[in-house]
Amino acid sequence: MAAINENYLKLKAGYLFPEIRRRVVAFEKENPSARVIRMGIGDVTEPLPAAVRQAMHQAVDDLGRHETFHGYGPEQGYDFLREAIAKHDFQARGCEVAADEIFVSDGSKCDCGNILDIFGPGNVVAITDPAYPVYVDTNVMAGHTGEAKENGEYDGLVYVTTKAETNFTAEPPSQRVDMAYLCSPNNPTGTVMTRPLLERWVQYAKANDTVLLFDAAYEAYITDPAIVHSIYEIPGARDVAIEFRSFSKLAGFTGVRCGFTVVPKSLKGRTKNGEAVELHKLWHRRQSTKFNGVSYITQRGAAAVYTDEGRAQVRDLVQFYLANAAIIRQSMSEIGLTMYGGVNAPYAWIKTPDGMSSWQFFDYLLKNCHVVGTPGSGFGAAGEGYFRLSCFNSRKNVEEAMRRILDKLKKP
Ligand SMILES: *Cc1c(COP(=O)(O)O)cnc(C)c1O
Predict the structure, then answer these.
(1) Does domain 52-307 match CATH 3.40.640.10?
(2) Are the C-beta atoms of residues 168 and 200 closer than 8 Å to each other?
(3) What are the angstrom distances between the C-alpha of 284 and each of 29, 74, 77, 221, 355?
(4) What predicted TM-score, i.e. pTM, was given to this entire model?
(5) CATH code for the part of the protein at 12-47+310-409
(6) How far apart are CA 360 and CA 128, in angstroms?
(7) How far apart, in whole angstroms, are the C-alpha atoms of residue 73 and residue 295?
(8) Binding-site residues, ligand 1, Cβ < 6 A
(9) Helix/strand/coil for 365
(10) In the chain, which segments carry CATH 3.90.1150.10?
């Protein structure tokens, strides 16, 4: 038998979403007439924008003629898409990001995990708590951690706990780390890092030779003009940060699959001998070898997001989900529950009432309101006592879910 990567055996069983599914299925079996509303998983519900669909139809037709047929494309993405991204997402915001620093991919979950291919063993990695589970699990798989402890945390990782008092955003840690994951607007808390806070992280990264892994999957949801959309809006970030972006929550691409990663040429890592090496070169080599590019059809669809028509349609899509968030916020305030997020992000992060644990509140909402959310503790120990409601849903479902919650929880 072949030896296995035993790091996989360190991963905690009973992963969050399977456990949620198990409880919901059991409830539905006992209560077949209940109409359960799912506000748990972060998947979009609204159809693809018309501009995107038109571009994809056209791209299919391109593939049907010799003159416009496309076979293998460049592994890093077609120039038409990389140039549109560089221009609209970065240069228009004053960021110095060139088209050839953008690597188009099949999604940013994949990139967040794959990026570890270009980093060596022994790096000290900081991850905020709570966090998107992919950051922790991919580091476990890559062997950057020890075993899981009693409380679910892994030995060897530096957990940067975020708290309600600081709007669930993290200050740089007091110790030095080699790499740090940041996510703003944040999944699961829906909160955003301010410009001064990001400046402190960039200063910290410069002083400590830290690589920041900045996940901006929810950038399109930023409504506050004081909040930066890209880490590269912070001076000096080109020397310290990789940024992950996705069309998933921006344009409904969760099933289409497209994202991109920015690796500036000025960003460096080091060899054992202390020699500096451009990370851009390594990621280019990694993608050229292990990846064969995103389909032409998908990239044409993604490029349509940057047309005037596409931009307007995407703005409407984002506004639709943010309006769901506003409905949830209004209901929580009527009940008297404390809610974070939901202004610059499609997630509501709610403090559970009466000192209930995250899972107790999950069971309470399922049994009494037939509403499914996500227990905060599933995103890390510091998420205990909180609960995430996703705003990705139909208006009808959000309104109905809030009606049911108000009926049960609103004090007369
Ligand atoms: C949804 C999400 C992504 C995007 O994933 P894709 O693979 O591009 O669909 C990335 N990061 C976070 C935190 C997310 O919630």
Answers:
(1) yes
(2) no
(3) 50, 11, 11, 30, 49
(4) 0.97
(5) 3.90.1150.10
(6) 24
(7) 8
(8) 42, 107-110, 132, 183, 187, 215, 217, 246, 248-249, 254, 259
(9) helix
(10) 12-47+310-409
- Helix 395-409 to helix 358-369 angle (10° resolution) is 100
**Ligand 1 atom with minimal separation from the 109 CA:** 7
With the most atoms of ligand 1 within 8 angstroms of its CB, the residue from 104, 114, 248 to mutate is: 248
Backbone dihedral angles phi then psi of residue 113, each to the nearest 5 degrees? -80, -45
- Name which of 158, 194, 226 is nearest 380 in CA terms: 158
Distance, in Å, from the CA atom of 78 to the CA atom of 73, rounded to the nearest integer, reads 7
Ranges for all domains in the chain classified under CATH 3.40.640.10: 52-307
pLDDT tens per residue across span 347-381: 999 999 999 999 999 999 999 999 999 999 999 99
Strand pairing report for 211-215 and 241-246: parallel
pLDDT digits (tens, 9 = 90+) for 127-183: 999 999 999 999 999 999 999 988 889 999 999 999 999 999 999 999 999 999 999
How far, in Å, CA of 81 to CA of 219, rounded?
A: 18
Contact between 370 and 396 under an 8 Å Cβ cutoff? The reply is no
